[in-house]
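Batch job 17 of 40 flagged for manual review because the log was empty.
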Amino acid sequence: MGQPNIKEIESSLKEWQFLQQLPEDVAGFKLRQGSGIEGQILNIASYVNEANHCQLDLTYTGETFDYVPVKKVGLHIFRDDRFFCRDRDKFAALMLAHLPEIIADIDRNQKHGMSYETQVQNFSTWEAWKNLPEKIGGFERFITPDNPLTYINGSIIFLDYTDFSNGNQLFFLYNTFRDELFAEIKKNYLPLTTEIFNAQNLNDLDKLLTEKLVSTLSELEN
């Protein structure tokens, strides 16, 4: 027997008791009913904190036939692969058990410390970032090293400047697997690569930030 298609999954949602069991609010994240099918993704339900630009989507993907929680923090969108599940009832049980934990991961009102693997770069003693402007043009400092975001493929986002109105972003990552400091860019929501902030250590990054942060954001804005 093959997998049901995504439209069949959508039509079965009205009978799924799980949707009635979801709490209306989790730590300030408000429940929203699903927004339907877009491409191969069915949005089943969402928890949204608009003030903090954070959201958790509960989805089904027709590409792999999985139920998947998708985290959105600012302009960062990534799947939580701990909870991929093809069995609908198992997914429901996992979400009901772990919703507070998953939302805590993306809640910018909660403090998230650096992991043990980052100690090699001495983030705990890095103070220079506190002298960086909180706003530069249309950009605001959204993520900082005292409240980093655990991301994908062993990376941690520790600094982020975002222009939410225009979908522009410059963010800085540390990859724990490769011991690398680097940056990535979004322009009008589209991801771009850059090597201008590649650094061996935080001292080197300090110099690059002093020399190039303002000019890079200015170029992004224009």
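Reviewer: the log was empty due to a logging misconfiguration, but the result itself is present. The two ends are 54 Å apart (CA to CA). Unflagging and moving on to job 18.
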